[in-house]
Write a structure and sequence with these properties.
By secondary structure, the chain is an alpha/beta fold. It contains 14 helices and 16 strands. Helix 8 links the parallel strand 10 and strand 11. It binds N-(iminomethyl)-L-glutamic acid and fe (iii) ion. N-(iminomethyl)-L-glutamic acid binds next to helix 3.
Length: 417
């Protein structure tokens, strides 16, 4: 099936188009904007992009007038397969309680762990599917989803199978599953005189059993670990990364949310695709990330919820690091389902430009997920599009709090309108 969509502005996010002198369309814009543009899609793919006046005449066309078309948004960091609610903790945090103290007292990740243990796999898959549908209605066509609340192998597998079930739906965002192998220490491995032995035994089990089994079952494409002062050490995470790499998984890491304990350097060492959070990172490590092509995934809803200072964005930019912006959707630090809200916060609180932010939630996010055929509107790529009910791409990063889409399309299929 062939179809043409036309609109006043087609934001391709295609650098090859931006500034190309052979084709005046898109010249001078970092986003590769085509004014009075057209996108020809054929089945699941983009077949042609250009000026509406140059588009083939014999194809069914739909004109969206003074609106903007962008690539479908890519949410590259979510814990969307959660269950339960942590509203009690939220109220405590708003009164000044510390996230790490709540977690140390058995709340936080352990609280959601108990909800994951209690819910059936079917209900978890159904709740995730509903959440992904709501994300699609905000413009998201690709969504990374982490496990990490199971903690035991059986429950991590249950979470990942629920993610796989939700991923089968072609009328929902494309799902990229991540095994968050080291997220929190289970309650039974925490206390007592033998706490150290129990901790080591848990990490051993994750490295020698969880990672190989989950990788071999193809339940995940990425491995993640929470490398921070209140979580896991660089040495513990490195063992999980090495086991994952040996089994063909790529790496993305939670790094520097509360303290810089060397997670960024580890990420560069093991060839991670992304370091996420990075409120705490030094200049030498930033340059290393830039050199190794490791993306920095910024999660401004989390730092907003925790009332933290932003990451050193100007320093990271000057070091040459490429940014991703993601929702971090989770019941504790980012109880939100909205990538557009994260984009608005990235602009207002983090000082990203609107153009940087749009690239960070499309092209760069897709690249960080090893999805080069998404995030950019160009011939041969998947037909993942958002037609915004907005007159300019810079309006996308305003903090609407409501859906501003006219149409969301993934693989050429309608997700929302
Ligand atoms: O990205 N920092 C660790 N993981 C999540 C929070 C998980 C939770 O609190 O449930 C984050 O902020
Ligand atoms: Fe996270």
């Amino acid at each position: 099936v062939k179809k043409i969509y036309t609109a006043a502005r087609v934001v391709t996010c295609d650098a090859a188009r931006a500034g190309s002198s052979a084709d005046s369309a898109g010249a001078g814009s970092p986003l590769g904007v085509i004014e009075d543009g057209a996108v020809l899609i054929e089945d699941a793919r983009v077949a042609w992009v250009g000026r509406a006046s140059d588009a083939p005449r014999d194809v069914d066309a739909e004109d969206f007038g003074a609106r903007v078309i962008t690539p479908g948004l890519v949410d590259a960091h979510t814990h969307a397969a959660w269950a339960g609610s942590r509203d009690g903790e939220y109220a405590m945090k708003m009164r000044g309680a510390d996230y790490r103290e709540i977690a140390a007292a058995g709340g936080g990740i352990l609280s959601t762990h108990r909800a994951i243990a209690a819910i059936s796999e079917e209900d978890l898959a159904r709740d995730l599917a509903a959440r992904l549908t709501r994300m699609a209605s905000l413009g998201v066509t690709t969504c990374e989803v982490k496990s990490g609340y199971g903690l035991t192998r059986a429950l991590e597998e249950k979470q990942l199978r629920a993610i796989a079930t939700a991923a089968k739906n072609k009328r929902a965002p494309h799902v990229v599953p991540t095994f968050l192998a080291l997220h929190a220490l289970p309650a039974e491995a925490r206390d007592g005189a033998d706490a150290k032995e129990k901790r080591d035994a848990y990490v051993d089990r994750v490295v020698t059993e969880h990672v190989p089994k989950i990788a071999d079952a193809k339940l995940a494409r990425f491995l993640d670990a929470y490398v921070d002062a209140n979580a896991f050490t660089v040495d513990e995470a490195r063992r999980a990364c090495d086991a994952a790499t040996a089994r063909g998984l790529s790496i993305r890491l939670h790094v520097g949310q509360f303290a810089d304990i060397g997670g960024a350097r580890l990420a560069a060492d093991v060839g991670a695709r992304s370091v996420d959070h990075v409120e705490h990172i030094g200049n030498a490590d930033a340059r290393l990330l830039a050199e190794k092509g490791v993306f920095c995934t910024l999660l401004p809803i989390a730092s907003f919820t925790l009332k933290q200072e932003p990451p050193p964005v100007a320093m990271l930019r000057a070091a040459g690091v490429r940014f991703v912006v993601a929702s971090d959707a989770n019941p504790g630090t980012a109880p939100s389902e909205s990538l557009p809200l994260a984009m608005a916060f990235a602009v207002r609180f983090y000082g990203l430009s609107p153009d940087e932010t749009i690239l960070a939630a499309t092209k760069h996010a897709a690249q960080s997920l090893d999805e080069p055929e998404r995030g950019v509107i160009s011939p041969g790529n998947y037909a993942d599009l958002v037609i915004w009910d907005l007159p300019h791409e810079h309006a996308i990063v305003q903090p609407w709090g409501t859906s501003k889409i006219a149409r969301v399309i993934r693989d050429g299929l309608l997700l929302a309108d």
